[in-house]
Automatic annotation (TrEMBL):
It holds the Pfam family TIM. Its main location: cytoplasm. Pathway: Carbohydrate degradation; glycolysis; D-glyceraldehyde 3-phosphate from glycerone phosphate: step 1/1; Carbohydrate biosynthesis; gluconeogenesis. Keywords: Cytoplasm, Gluconeogenesis, Glycolysis, Isomerase. This is Triosephosphate isomerase. Homodimer. The keyword Isomerase applies. It is found in: Cytoplasm. GO terms for cellular component: cytosol. It catalyses: D-glyceraldehyde 3-phosphate = dihydroxyacetone phosphate.
Length: 253
């Protein structure tokens, strides 16, 4: 059984004050939920205060990025050890915004994943195709390459969560169809099986891309979807709580 996982990726949004105000509203809306995991990835500068506010709650502290070295002369970077020290449990790696704006390659992503696993941090590894790649029938080639290179020499998948995030669906309101999600997740599962055999069945695959309370019910009821990574809609406590409580949203579809 794979435990469902709903993760908020706040990107470069919310000051410490705003983030704490979000939690005041959000925690009571989800505090009795214990059959799924909930994660929040605030900015680095919010990690300590949000981490303190999340103590004794059912919500996991996540980070949006990391560097692959342990320490040293790397101005502006943050190491896995530093995240661990703040009780971060999951790190998002390979988000398409990092690939696009910060030129992160598959090789860099692979080093980051390894560095996190070495420090016993869990990883949410994002993959997904651009619209041009989809339109030229390269979706599977791209996913295969991202998986093979991103997970090169990573022999134990216990700390891994995958996130399928078609780039064209992120922040655009253009959610992937149930058929597109099902097909991509099945392909990702098959690739994971080639790498990890029966252990691949334990790896959760999240969907990300314009998830809202209005579309969450059908997304969560898609084969091989084990949760969601949510950007825009996770900034609002009521909307994100409705996404976490996805079974209750059927009437909205
Ligand atoms: C994301 O940034 O991972 C994401 C899926 O964003 P949005 O939900 O806004 O499309």
């Amino acid at each position: 059984m794979r435990t469902k996982f709903c993760v908020a990726n706040w990107k470069m949004h919310k000051t410490v004050k705003e983030a704490l105000a979000f939690l005041q509203d959000f925690i009571p809306l989800v505090d009795e939920i214990n059959d799924r995991e909930i994660g929040i990835a605030p900015t680095f500068v919010c990690l300590e205060s949000i981490g303190n506010a999340l103590k004794d709650t059912n919500i996991k502290l996540c980070a949006q990025n990391v560097f692959y070295e342990k320490k040293g002369a790397y101005t502006g970077e943050i190491s896995p050890i530093m995240l661990k020290d703040l009780n971060v449990e999951y790190v998002i790696i390979g988000h398409s915004e990092r690939r696009k704006y910060f030129y992160e390659t598959d090789e860099i992503i692979n080093r980051k994943i390894k560095a996190c696993i070495d420090e016993k941090l869990n990883v949410i590894f994002c993959i997904g195709e651009t619209i041009e790649e989809r339109q030229s029938n390269k979706t599977f080639d791209v996913l295969k390459r991202q998986i093979e290179k991103g997970l090169e020499n990573i022999n134990n998948p216990d700390a891994l969560v995958l996130a399928y995030e078609p780039v064209w669906a992120i922040g655009t309101g253009m959610v992937a169809s149930q058929a597109q999600i099902e097909e991509a997740h099945a392909f990702i599962r098959s690739q994971l099986k080639e790498l990890y055999y029966e252990k691949a069945d334990m790896i959760r695959i999240l969907y990300g891309g314009s998830v809202t309370p209005e579309n969450i019910y059908s997304i969560m009821n898609t084969e091989n979807v084990d949760g969601v990574l949510v950007g825009g809609a996770s900034l609002d406590p009521v909307k994100f709580a409705r996404i976490v409580r996805y079974e209750e949203q059927r009437r909205n579809e």
